Amino acid sequence: MDLDVFVTAHRTEWDRLDHLLRRGRSLTGAEADELVVLYQRTATHLSLIQSTTPDPLRTARLTQLVARARATVTGTRKASWRDAARFLTAGFPAAVYRSRHWWVPTAVLSTVVAALLGWWIGTHPEVQAAIAAPEDLRAMTRPGGEYETYYSSHPAASFAAQVWTNNAQAAAMCLVLGAFLCLPVIWILFLNMLNLGVGIGLMSSAGRLDVFLGLVLPHGLLELTAVFVAAGTGLRLGWTVIDPGPLSRRTALAQQGRAALGMAIGLALVLFVSGVIEGFVTPSGLPTWARITIGIAAELAFLAYVYILGRRAVRAGDIGDLTAVERSAELPSAA
């Protein structure tokens, strides 16, 4: 395509669209219809220039023109409580459900890695000696030691807030850094599993694995599930960079990135719940079976939320992204 000829042929339409946009609300009915037609044509022109002979200056001008026209044609709207309700009942569970093929294998593989690390540490004294001195290990694993007092070392409210903040940051890092070809996500996930494996190994070598699991399971089931969802979403985002599928890389990344942003907000709420459990239930005087039951109930409630509401929303066409009206217009791709 000869870019100069193309620009000469369509400059009048672009100038006319710009003129109509400057008129604002004073358009007649016929002029409003003309604006819509010119908006659609200009969007197609922009797509052709981008896919055949990209020119930075003309692309920038047309991108701005199309964005202004889209805002005029579709209008703007304010977020409402209805949007929040839709996000919690459809958007977020749909996004988690659609990414299950990423986070479920991530959860299974990570759990296996943590178990293997725990077995390795627990059955090899030389590895334990490399972690800490024998007296320090005894201080950590003895009755009333650091592993047990960790959850009651601070006031429950402040401890829950601290745990929530730390876990939310870890989940956000998985979501954001996933775009860097998945590698940072794998590293963050490995560090989490290593910490868990060290606890399993040291407490099992001291014959107190049941105590450790009684402290970890009440909050850990939901907390780790949220981390696995974040990691799986981050890995999916990273893979989109490598293989965007039938969409253009820009469109695919925008779609996955918006879903990841919504996921971060939803997972922050999930981690808030796990933080409350860790701050108030884990160190409580409840029997171990009661604390674990609360943790299992929270985990099952989240899974039911995802697999019932999420599946229903996906079947209704929700993909965990913005609605079609809220998304930027997707330009046709040249063959």
Explain what you see:
By secondary structure, the protein is mainly α. Helices cover 79% and strands 0% of the residues. The protein has 13 helices and no strands. Mean pLDDT is 84; it is low at 324-335.
Main β sheet profile = none
Strand count = 0
Question: What's the pLDDT, averaged over the residues?
Answer: 84
* SSE string: HHHHHHHHHHHHH
Q: Hey, roughly how much beta strand do the residues contain?
A: under 5%
Q: Can you tell me the residue ranges where pLDDT is under 50 for at least 5 consecutive residues?
A: 324-335
Q: How would you classify the helix and strand content by structural class?
A: mainly alpha
Which overall shape is indicated by the principal axes computed on the Cα atoms? elongated
> Helical residue percent?
over 70%
- Tell me the number of helical segments per DSSP (H or I, 4 or more residues long): 13
Separation of the first and last Cα atoms: 14 Å
CA-based gyration radius = 26 Å
